[in-house]
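User: structure tokens for this one?
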Amino acid sequence: MQRSQLAKMIDHTVLGPAASPDAVKRLCAEAIDLNVASACVDGAYARLAHEALADSPVKLCIVVGFPHGMSNARVKAFEARAAIEDGADEIDMVINVPALQAGDHETVRDEIAAVCAAASEAERTVEVKVILETARLTDEEKTAGAKLAKEAGADFVKTSTGFGPGGATVEDVAILRSAVGPEMGVKAAGGIRDYETAVAMIEAGATRIGASRTTAILEGAEA
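Assistant:
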């Protein structure tokens, strides 16, 4: 793949308690320089990142319910609205994984729908990506979660937070793609550190890659 084409499929990411304000500023500068799809940071840094990305084509992606997904639907929707007010163009929300595992599809569908509703209230287009944490799920649960995300109106389904027991796999990306069909986005995230792995995910059906080692990934692409 050409470097510019691959870059536009990457969410350049820094998340978690070790992410300092300076790290977020560096990430945003790198995101602009690499011309990636988005810079993905925690909600506490939404305003900082929005200012750092101003006048660039790079979108701002903010995580919600991260990383465990154990806040309720009202809280996730409120968090999404706050992120959007602070400049978010995309929301990556974590589902209630135990609810999905217990077969409580109504809870999962309702919380995704609540976040999607919050996104739809924005005066600009805000896309919602739904993180399933696939390493914790059976294949049947992965399929069910992806279908619930589609039913609830999400734009993407995403494999992993990067903080769970495992990251993206080619097999999981293929399962998600099969579940949602061709019209919905699939984001592979967690453990993608080189060009070959990124391309394998794309060949399996991913349309977006979440990565913190973006420069290393792009080094393998054609200029």
